[in-house]
Amino acid sequence: MASPRSTSRTLSRGDTGSFLLFMVAGVAIAAWAVARSIGNIVQAAGNSDVRVPVEFLDTVAQAPIGPDGASVPVELTGAVVTAPSLPLASLWALFLSEALFAAAVVTVVALLLVLCVGILRGQIFSPRHTRLVAAVGVVSLIGAIGVPFLHNMVANGALAWLSERTYDRGLTQQIDLPVLIVIGFVAGLSSTVFAVGDRLQRDTEGLV
User: Fold this and answer.
1) How far, in Å, CA of 31 to CA of 27, rounded?
2) What is the DSSP letter of 50?
3) What are phi and psi of 58, to 5 degrees?
4) Is the alpha carbon torsion for 65, 66, 67, 71 positive or negative?
5) DSSP secondary structure letter of residue 26
6) Model's pTM, two decimal places?
7) Closest-CA residue to 75 (of 57, 49, 48)
8) Hey, which end of the chain has fewer CB within 10 Å, N or C?
9) pLDDT value at position 5?
């Protein structure tokens, strides 16, 4: 019966150091995501003078970039507006978007940390690791779709109240399709690589 490879034969000292640095960075990113979301929720909790990033479509504004600060028409694609308050539905959408962002980042980091621990123990390919990689892809897609969708509700509510429902923002694409395609491709490729690696490893061990 084949014996599993030891960690020393699988990972070099440099590899181990890289994984440890990756794990430290992951914890820092998760902490930043939680702190960011909590800060945004606290800032908006009073529902007064709420700052909301907004994307615009075919909107012309005046910018003081001409000679001696003269106004020049520019096409506005994004800005931060301060709404005196938000509709209740938009306020809750803001809370949910921040909570989803933090939860998605923390979950992805936690799954990758478990994966790193498994690799550091000398087991690179396994069904468990394949499931972890697939779960990272699914959670990343959920966050990449859900957070912009909820934020779109926040932006619409802010503009509706600022303009007393007279401003028509038109259709804007809050969800970045190229990003979703890249995330889906990377997630699918990574899952396939781990699945094939696990199968090849089991086939190789069976020959020993």
Assistant:
1) 6
2) E
3) 55, 45
4) negative
5) H
6) 0.80
7) 57
8) N
9) 45
* Both structure tokens of 79: 């800005």
Under 8 Å between Cβ of 146 and 32? no
83: its two tokens: 């709404």
- The answer to whether the Cα torsion of 37, 39, 43, 45 is positive or negative is positive
pLDDT greater than 60 at residue 7: no
The encoded tokens of residue 52 equal 């909301």
Place of tokens 């890249």: 182
What single string gives the DSSP state of each residue in 51-113? EEEEEEEEEEEEES-SGGG--EEEEEEEEEEEES---HHHHHHHHHHHHHHHHHHHHHHHHHH
C-alpha neighbours within 13 Å on the C-beta side of residue 107:
18
Which of 8-17, 29-38, 64-73 is predicted with the least confidence, judged by mean pLDDT? Answer: 8-17
With H, G, I as helix, E, B as strand and everything else as coil, classify residue 74: strand
Structure tokens at 165: 């429902």
